[in-house]
Amino acid sequence: MTNLKTITMFLFLFLIAMTSLPSITHCRTLIIPNTEKLMESTCKKTPNYNVCLQSLKAYPGSSGTDVNGLAQIMVKVMRSKANDAINMIHELQRSRPSKALSSCASKYNAIVIGDIPEATEALAKGDPKFAENGANDAANEATFCESGFNGKSPLTQQNNAMHDVSAVTAAIVRLLL
Amino acid sequence: MLSWQRTAFHFQPDKNWMNDPNGPVYYKEWYHFFYQYNPNDAVWGDIVWGHAVSRDMIHWLYLPIAMVPDQWYDANGVWTGSATILSDGQLVMLYTGSTNESVQVQNLAYPADPSDPLLLNWTKYDKNPVLSPPPGIHYRDFRDPTTAMLTSEGKWRISIGSKINKTGIALIYDTEDFKNFELKNGWLRAVQGTGMWECVDFYPVSSINDVGLDTSAYGDGVKHVVKVSLDDDRNDYYAIGSYDEKLASFLPDDVKNDVGIGLRYDYGNFYASKTFFDPSKQRRILWGWITEYDSECVDRTKSWASLQGIPRTVRLDRKTWSNLIQWPVEEVNSLRLRSSEFKDLKAKPGSVVPLQVETATQLDIVAEFEVDKEALETTLPESDTDYICESSGGASGRGALGPFGLLVLADAGLSEFTPLYFYVSKGLNGSLRTTFCSDQSRSSVATNVNKKVLGSVVPVFGGEKLSLRVLVDHSIVESFAQGGRTCVTSRVYPTRAIYGAAKLFVFNNATDATVTASIKVWQMNSAFIRPYHPETDT
């Protein structure tokens, strides 16, 4: 009898414990509700709400930040997309080198070495308009890269991603002006 | 790379990025010019104060960097500032520092050796910052202090731009020593919806003659100008009005053209501008930053970005009373070499006439146009929709009385050209309206350049011929319509109309009117802008 009681109590306590613990089993980054609201309202003011929200939410450390912080996160997302494109370009250059591909390589190089550090510094130091310049420029470079293939681009996915993320970044920076 | 884009007589550093003009001042018979500069890259960043001097504001000599971010209070940027010459001739500089925590503060600096006419070294006040953002002002909305003006109480008064939500404002501070400041109640001016006011400039203009005024001038015969650079649209706006010293407030003559919503110095590429008073020739001089209109990728390829416009004199237009007149400083005329003159050239509707001028990449052009009187009188009025350069489609859109003007930086086959044109239209009540545009849409076969058509309406009095002055310098075209009533700066990047292949044409794309043009064209010498040499430069 004592064993059954113990087991029952144990089970009971176990059940209570399981239902009152936070859902850490879902492997989802905990986002403070205020930040989530800020992300949603900010993303509504950008040309691509879904890209904006997904980018911000996926980024570790998105909690407890302001619009300037969200812009800084987007610049990091821009860098990551640019690197994706560069990796793809290098792969393609091994099997199918072309003038258009080389041109894209230099454009993405410029994004990583020029636009992104410019935007990062501008947001960190408090003169956001230069971040807008950098983000707009990156969006343009992606468009020019794509148009260089005259319709038969092997980089469409990467260029679209770069363009969309940059356009979202520029829109968020505009809110700071 | 792309070396044909570099200019011959516009200020630009040897390489890398430049932006705002800083602290322009005349001191010990040298014109000093400082500028926001990135010593490491061709995009904005790592900002320091570059420095150059000149005897004539045209032949510039590079000097070493004047100030770097070496203190906690400017660690994140030695940003824009202005010079003030005190009553005893002392020079003080106030500038914005972005602190190590990115707070915008104002700092005091002065020449390390005031007897050095080159002002090579600068000392920062050891108790900087002298101003921090006041309550209610965001710590990142507090920058670009103006030159100070002396009040009748013997205090020095400066203005600093900011914003409250979306209302742009100019704060006013009084000081006796540039170390302790008193924030005055109220704003110099505030205008809703204009956003952050950068690079505020606040100065007097004479209403009785064309002479420039010392920044502290006040009283009869003096009107004031408040100018701002709007962060939101990257344009410089000004308003003319009255300044009340006691109330420290400014009232524009025309509230419809209030600060930030009315007139612009320049309807093209022109930002962060700043004036100073030149006591040696009693004139007010305007500097403006001309950024690139190509992509940043190309800027990094060619290793440089940005120019300064040719300095302009600024004065009140005492015919219209509602705008300023700007004109390139007369010293630019010293660059004129050979000239070609074309008198009473008749351009029929739909014509393009080449002007034989040898090389057409460095030019000073002065032109007058007269529209055939009969056409002006007999043309039927169009609708009252105003001709707007930006949406007009450029010089290929034909009207009865326009467009007509010049094609600069054009190649012989006209695959690349930049039209600078007047468009005259007749409103329903018979009155004429003249617009001046600088059309970048066909300026280059390259795709990654700005192709906008820029410009604005020009005030023209009855009896006045249409006049145009243009400075062409490789990748910059500065146009001054009607004696400087309407100015448009363009950046263009031809790939074929370069060096010896660049040509000049007159054109008339109107359908009805013949246009008579009288044009004088000078080849312009280089200004040989280079580093200062102690042995040879005096």
Automatic annotation (TrEMBL), chain A:
Coiled coil: none annotated. Residues 1-27 form the signal peptide. One of its GO terms (molecular function) is enzyme inhibitor activity. Residues 34-172 form the Pectinesterase inhibitor domain. CDD domains: CIF_like. Pfam families: PMEI. It comes from the Eukaryota. Keywords: Disulfide bond, Signal. Belongs to the PMEI family. This is Cell wall / vacuolar inhibitor of fructosidase 1.
Automatic annotation (TrEMBL), chain B:
It catalyses: Hydrolysis of terminal non-reducing beta-D-fructofuranoside residues in beta-D-fructofuranosides. Its main location: membrane. Residues 10-328 form the Glycosyl hydrolase family 32 N-terminal domain. InterPro entries: ConA-like_dom_sf (IPR013320), Fructan_Metab_Enzymes (IPR050551), Glyco_hydro_32 (IPR001362), Glyco_hydro_32_AS (IPR018053), Glyco_hydro_32_C (IPR013189), Glyco_hydro_32_N (IPR013148), Glyco_hydro_beta-prop_sf (IPR023296). One of its GO terms (molecular function) is beta-fructofuranosidase activity. Coiled coil: none annotated. The keyword NADP does not apply. GO terms for cellular component: membrane; vacuolar lumen. GO terms for biological process: carbohydrate metabolic process. Pathway: Glycan biosynthesis; sucrose metabolism. It is found in: Membrane; Vacuole lumen. It is a single-pass type II membrane protein. Keywords: Glycosidase, Hydrolase, Membrane, Signal-anchor, Transmembrane, Transmembrane helix, Vacuole. Residues 331-523 form the Glycosyl hydrolase family 32 C-terminal domain. PANTHER family: BETA-FRUCTOFURANOSIDASE, INSOLUBLE ISOENZYME CWINV1-RELATED. Belongs to the glycosyl hydrolase 32 family. This is Acid beta-fructofuranosidase. It comes from Arachis duranensis. The gene is LOC107487035.
